[in-house]
Design a protein that fits this description.
Layout lengths: L1 H5 L4 H21 L8 E6 L3 E8 L18 H8 L2 E6 L4 E8 L10
Helix pairs in contact: 2-3
């Protein structure tokens, strides 16, 4: 992503951040969609991490990682593996799912 490059975030940390953004955006598009509303992506760079936030209008639909193998739900397991922390916070309308990815990323993006 262009912004990560601008911040000097490269290598495994950039790949991890890109994967987290992709998974959270996919979840927002699939599960957080309300007709006439979009989702919002925000990123910020700290001294040792990138914080990623995706907000959508469906506050009642909280993300939960899959506990058993099935057809989906593994995206949040990937987020949990790549991020140092993640969570959900309420907004006036909807929710924000956030994650932090370390800049000295020890988590490698699994091969596809």
């Amino acid at each position: 992503m262009h912004q990560l490059h601008e911040w000097g975030v490269t290598g495994a940390a950039a790949e991890a951040a890109e994967s987290v953004v992709a998974e959270l955006a996919n979840n927002a598009a699939l599960h957080g969609r309300v007709p006439g509303r979009d989702f919002e992506v925000r990123m910020g760079r700290g001294d040792d991490h990138v914080r990623i936030e995706l907000s959508d209008a469906r506050g009642e639909r909280r993300p939960l990682p899959a506990r058993e193998p099935d057809e989906g739900g593994y995206g949040l397991l990937l987020v949990a593996a790549l991020a140092t922390a993640w969570g959900v916070k309420d907004r006036c309308v909807g929710k924000t799912v956030w994650a932090t990815v370390a800049l000295t990323c020890q988590n490698a993006v699994p091969p596809r």
